[in-house]
Amino acid sequence: MTIHSAQRKAAALAPTLMAAAILGTLGAPAHGQAQQQEQNLPEVRVNAQAASATTEGSGSYTSGSMTAATRLNLSMRETPQSVSVVTRQQMDDMNIRSVEDIANITPGLSLNKGATERASFYSRGFSISNFTEDGLTMSADGDTLGFATLAMYDRVEILRGAAGMMNGVGNPSGTMNFVRKRPTTENEVSLTGSVGRYNDYRSEVDARGALNQAGSLRGRAVAAYQDTDTFISNYRHKRALLYATADADLSRDTTLSVGFHVNDERNPGSTWYGLPTALDGSFLPLDRSASNAPDWTFWNKKNTRLFAELEHRLGNGWKVKLAAQALQDELDSVVTGIARVQKTNLFRLSAANAFVYDRQQRIVDAQAAGPFSLLGRRHEIVFGANYRTRDTEDKGYKSVPDYSYTFNPVNWDTGAPVKPAIGTFYYGQDSKTKQTGVYTTARFSLADPLALLVGGRVDWYDYRAINTFTGARSGYKVSREVTPYAGLVYDIDALHSLYGSWTSIFNPQSAVDRHGVLLDPVTGINMEAGVKGEYFGGALNASAAVFRIVQKNLATSLPLTQCGPGLLSCSEAAGEVRSDGFELSVSGALTPRWQMSAGFTYNTADYAKAQGSNAAGARYAAERPSRLLRLSTSYRLSDAWRVGGALRAQNHIYKTNSAIRQGGYAVADLNAGWQVNRQLDVRLSVTNVFDRSYYQAISSIDSGNAFGDPRSAVLTAKYTF
Predict the structure, then answer these.
(1) Considering only 47-56, 127-136, 436-445, 588-597, which range has the smallest mean pLDDT?
(2) Of 580, 502, 581, 495, which is closest to residue 531 (Cα–Cα)?
(3) Residue 5 pLDDT > 60, yes or no?
(4) Residue 237: which of 246, 225, 247 has the closest Cα?
(5) Which of 142, 388, 432, 684 is most buried (CB neighbours < 10 A)?
(6) Which residues partner with 226 through β-bridges?
(7) Under a CB-based contact definition with an 8 Å cutoff, are residues 454 and 444 in contact?
(8) How far apart are alpha carbons 329 and 327 in whole angstroms?
(9) What is the pLDDT of residue 31?
(10) Which of 58, 50, 48, 68 is nearest to 88 (CA)?
(11) Which residues partner with 629 through β-bridges?
């Protein structure tokens, strides 16, 4: 072992060692007591009811309820849209550590990562533009996105289709709701350490419990650290997370929750663009470790969150809640662009760029929810208002003089290029977005087997931007934009329901045309119908759905050569894009020992009406898969041993007006776990077991193509006090 690797290993395990020292002061079981506990394995219990939304400790691959679609606390069967959840148990079993891993196992989701730090997520043919944390909406920003670790989350709820009731604006693809771990009255501390391929060292500390004798004050803290190489040459990660939260019972009926988290990522060797192809679109003979970035590039991110929630229970099932969150996302990077030497397979590092971003969001949401009686039947309603702002300050600098280094991507030394001086300002954009909305959703019990969900939002939207390089200003203001929602759920019998839903789409865009003028907002409709089943008291959920999404004015990217000065990108509006498809999914317990999550999605997206360079009938975004299979499962062989695996597969993808093709492929993962005793759990995870080589993202002959991860293994040990 080298001195450097020893230092890195020690740094990665530092939080675990520190926590162990702290625990000594808190008091551990006596030696004799500890020996007795170690001789007994825990009793295996699977939560067959799955009644609670919290998934930690349930052992389940499903959740009892969620609010991701309508803001009402409904079961999956009661929700008239396609929903799924990635539980804490599933994350642990499958070694799911990042939002990218979520996309790889969730039905209907796909990932495009043409550069090392710029991930985009898609569902039903369109990109996901909004995420939520504990139900509060935030913009999903690929440049500064900070979900490289999921250690602080209990579950991730996924809604497929339009989420206008939650967000007011956004693409009709869907949204992901990240639900944080909460404090508990039980005192517990867990220490987790892992080691994997590519010198991957991780550690995690999770402490929770009552902070006073009465249990009216509870706290939780999670710290995680990773130090790792990657399969890409000279590309590495150092990632640290600190999360802390506390719940205080101000009275019997009032609870205040406050907290924060900081995510800090250092990513040396990051690429701005992915790999090129040959002139004819065929893939070059590149090793998966190939990089187009010199050793001195980096892409560092820092994400800070402050949040608070005040809930008061009024009685008779009613409650009011006020929630707020402040976000700051920062980027500091030095990267290079690449350009092909004309009619050859040689390339130039054509630019050295430094980008400094500061993006802030403020969200406040107030709501009241509860039951009411009308015409002798019991119904539910939620109504509220929210306010959201987003301020961005983006700056770009380039090398002086213009940087130029010619290389052969098949075989070159990433340490050879000399870092240039960077200091000339050439790109800048400041923007400010304000959104105010009021909303309501009601669930009417029309008859014993029939429920009607109706609701709507009214939004006021104001967007202003200034190109600080050219001085050009743009923006628009929308008042009283109405987003209606309607859904029906009909109970066929005690286990099965038919459902249908409809909602409109409204999504203001920050995309600009070749002259820097903002494109008009996207409008459209989302329709869905299907059947759902709920079995074993809610422990197993299944669904089948068909859907149609229609959008107008959707931005379609233009070549950078067609963009005006001071623009990093530009687009044109599509006339009308239509996405049709169906999905099948199942999640939960097939038997008390067998957990499963599986789904198949088919969708095709086409230009229904021509506009600009887009021809009617042409495929929209053919570089995204139209058929997706997702499967993950775990089986407990005994109280001590469990085994599992996962499979993800998709059809071929291609780039329109290009010869680039990636054939269909399937990737398999395996995992095994050993519950040594009540305190110690050991897991082994192997991803891409058969070492399938494939491009998970394709873009152009000059850049944007990226290999999927090769085979890797991670050994994890978790000790709980």
Answers:
(1) 47-56
(2) 495
(3) no
(4) 225
(5) 388
(6) 202, 239
(7) yes
(8) 7
(9) 36
(10) 58
(11) 600, 649
Main-chain phi, psi angles of 165, to 5 degrees: -70, -30
CB 652 within 8 A of CB 662: yes
- Fill in the amino acid letter for 277: T
Task: Please compute the mean of the pLDDT values over residues 200-222 and round it to a whole number.
Answer: 96
d(CA 499, CA 519): 35
- Which residue shows structure tokens 């996302």? 329
Are the C-beta atoms of 453 and 487 separated by less than 8 Å? yes
Phi and psi at 7, nearest 5°, equal -60, -45
Q: Which amino acid is at 246?
A: A
Residue 35 in tokens:
């020996």
Residue ranges of domains in the chain: 3-27+48-720
Q: Which of 273, 274, 267, 276 is nearest to 297 (CA)?
A: 267
Q: Which two tokens stand for residue 31?
A: 């030696």
Which string of DSSP letters, residue by residue, matches 394-416? Answer: EEEEEESS----EE-TTS--TT-
Architecture of domain 3-27+48-720: Beta Barrel (2.40)
Burial degree of 45 (CB within 10 A; 0-12, 13-18, 19+): exposed
pTM summary value: 0.89
Cβ pair 553, 523 in contact under 8 A: yes
What is the distance between the alpha carbons of residues 148 and 119, in angstroms, rounded to a whole number?
11
Structure tokens belonging to residue 500? 């249908």
Q: Is the pLDDT of residue 17 over 60?
A: no
Please give the Cα distance from 574 to 214 (Å, whole number): 61
Residues 499 and 174: their CA atoms lie apart, in Å, by 18
Which tokens hold the place of 305?
Answer: 């969150």
Kind plus residue range of the DSSP H or E element containing 22? helix 3-26
CA separation for the pair 716, 384 (Å, rounded): 44
Contact assessment for residue 209 and residue 185, using Cβ atoms and an 8 Å cutoff:
yes
Retrieve residue 286's tokens: 């590149």
Is pLDDT of 705 > 90? yes
pLDDT in tens, 56-105: 988 889 887 787 777 888 888 999 999 999 999 999 999 999 999 999 99
Per-residue tokens: 488? 């029906």
Rounded distance between C-alpha atoms, residue 109 and residue 121, angstroms: 7
Distance CA 508, CA 483 (A): 13
